[in-house]
Amino acid sequence: MLTRLSLTAAVAAVLVVAGCGSAQSAPPPAQSAPPPAPSAPPPAAGAYGAFTQSYTVPWAGSPDFANLMQTLKVDVSVNGGTVSPFTVDTGSVGVVVPASEVPNVPPGAPAGELTYSSSGLQLTGVWVTLSVRFPRAVNASGTRASAQATVPVLAVTSSKCLGGGVNSRRCTGGIPHMLGVGFGREPNRPPTYNPLLNLTEMAAGTMRRGYVVGRGGLTLGLTEANASGAWTMQQLATAGAPAEGAHNDWLTPPGGFQLGSSPVFSGKILIDTGLLDMIVEADGLPASGMVPEGTPMTINIGDLHYTFAVGDGGAQTPIGGVHHARAANGTFVNTGLRALGRYDLLYDADGGFLGLRAE
């Protein structure tokens, strides 16, 4: 889910903007599976073989990837508080939780404000560094072993709908449970705010920083067993020295889209697991409105692509349609979650790789 964050002077402000695009009608193509494609240079030999530690966190609710109707969730407890299902959101960075579910929030924590730009939901609370625990995690040997990270968390005390954003009509004002685990949301919070990159073992250097969003659950920590095989890897460009912490971020990968028989619009792409619909934007295309149902679309993610017709009900077809939005940052497509209807996703934060595996 795309976010915009406004914080006090103690915490730097950040902004992530939604996108825009257009459509033409033509006979809808058949839904196609991702074809084989050349991959980026693989990580250095032994990069994953040097690590054996990982966790798998089962999805709450046993989602059907062939027809994803809700966002992906895992059970989480913040600071030893209530265990609740949290949405795994690659479109934002940072943990969001109702303050009422967080024990022992220290007095004097810096105020914070976060706005999800796609829905116009504004959240107000305090940033506080706390433990984020995954109580249902199992380790690489299949033994229950709770995984834990210590990261800044936005403990939310109030919320409101501001209007604006392609999904503003769906804004209820409720306080969500969100695990913002994305990258390249420039400018945005640094990787120190990402709970999936700051597990205890990752901080100690005994687990490779990264994760897999797959059919079997959310995998934390990359090893030879979970990161090798039929992945198409895309090398990411570095975002440079971080605002804080020891690890740099990586930029949003290249990608694009085509509407009907229009030219291909090439720019950047975000696989945003916090949305079920899609957003496209490019100069010369409408700044608002919807791509008409039945419009054939092709989505390019690096060397891979997939196709659908808007509204055709396919595994990778967004629910709620495809939105145009203002091209504030050039050509951009937010695929939403349903891009993963036929892919598993890997993010290697240490090597700077995005991996997709056809399923």
TrEMBL record:
It comes from the Bacteria. Keywords: Signal. One of its GO terms (molecular function) is aspartic-type endopeptidase activity. Transmembrane segments: none annotated. InterPro entries: Peptidase_aspartic_dom_sf (IPR021109). Residues 24-45 are annotated as: Disordered. This is Uncharacterized protein. It comes from Mycolicibacterium sarraceniae. The lineage of its organism: Bacteria, Bacillati, Actinomycetota, Actinomycetes, Mycobacteriales.
